[in-house]
Amino acid sequence: MRILFITSTRIGDAVLSTGLLDHLLRENPGARFTIVCGTVAEGVFAHLPGLERIIPVTKRRWSLHWLELWRQVAFRRWDLVVDLRGSAIAWLLLARKRAVMKGGRRSGHRLLHIAEALGVTPAPRPVAWFSPAEAARAAALLPGGPWLILGPTANWRVKMWPAERFIALAQKLAAPDGLLPGARLAILGGPGEAERQMAAPVLAALPEALDLVGRLSLPEAAAVLARGALFIGNDSGLMHLSAATGAPTLGLFGPTPASEYAPVGARAQAVLAKGPPANTPMQRLAVDQVVEAAARVLALPVPA
């Protein structure tokens, strides 16, 4: 069985779509998958079981990227085409079955919208795939523990919790009377100078922290996150990736809708700045509020 799976260009949405892929894997043993995604999200699918090919898409003027994609996939008969972009391309291909997600903004969590494309209920949780080699590298980078992992960057600066609060939070959680006494610190962020500048104040104030900003592939980041005692970060792709590993994860929200993009995992929660949902500055999220939320996440049972 050959499945064409068209998903998001962004990391966070791509991670959320992994639950549906995992469902298809379980329902169709031996299926071969071609994944269409953004170039930044390729690593999310690098170790997908049954992966045949990843087709990275870069947006072009006049939507010419869709024409280029059609040229790459049109001359094959597909058993199933899943299009989470809500485009017309699924209807222009030879396929036994098609599942196209409705486009546009809607109420409800993005995960529910993704699952609705195939009529799957309940919506399957995201998963994270990484290799034994990447797990070994993560173990070498993060020996022992516990490790508190912080994600102080975001793709939009207004989503960033102030650096001084990340610093105060880390010191409070790792204190002898904190939730993670003696915890070691690691700082994660994406590649590029902009991400490094966003993380710089936190790194400067916590010189003992392990600096992993821009130094990991996505599968390596997943392996590192899976070793964390707790991840706390802004609404970002790393937040979704952490939740997908099953690690305790706390996502920080202010001006973006947690109702649509809260982290999804067995031990994942969102904490919202006090004010109108999706319309409140991150400055209104207090350190003590995050500590209280961290205690709730850490108290959640470990899945069997």
UniProtKB/TrEMBL annotation:
<keyword id="KW-0328">Glycosyltransferase</keyword>
<keyword id="KW-0808">Transferase</keyword>
<dbReference type="GO" id="GO:0016757">
    <property type="term" value="F:glycosyltransferase activity"/>
</dbReference>
<protein>
    <submittedName>
        <fullName>Glycosyltransferase family 9 protein</fullName>
        <ecNumber>2.4.-.-</ecNumber>
    </submittedName>
</protein>
<dbReference type="InterPro" id="IPR051199">
    <property type="entry name" value="LPS_LOS_Heptosyltrfase"/>
</dbReference>
<dbReference type="InterPro" id="IPR002201">
    <property type="entry name" value="Glyco_trans_9"/>
</dbReference>
<dbReference type="Pfam" id="PF01075">
    <property type="entry name" value="Glyco_transf_9"/>
</dbReference>
